[in-house]
Design brief:
single chain; mainly alpha; 2 helices; about 50% helix
């Protein structure tokens, strides 16, 4: 009624549905700032470990490869 008195509606009608949905807020889907910071640190460490493994494999490959003529 307040919206109609303030002329916020023109010719439109608003319907409100009373359905309820179960929220999914378990620990796996709930992120706090601390969890995000920890997760980003884990990702950075994982990337560094991966890049180190690639560099190590490249060094081993160069030492094993024999020159071809």
């Amino acid at each position: 009624m307040l919206c109609r008195k303030l002329n916020l509606f023109t010719e439109a009608f608003v319907a409100i549905d009373g359905r309820k949905f179960k929220a999914v807020n378990n620990r796996d889907r709930n992120f706090t700032k601390a969890k995000m910071k920890r997760r980003l640190q884990q990702i950075d460490e994982s990337i560094e470990r991966y890049l180190g493994q690639i560099a190590s494999a490249d060094r081993q490959e160069a030492a094993i490869a024999e020159p071809k003529t």
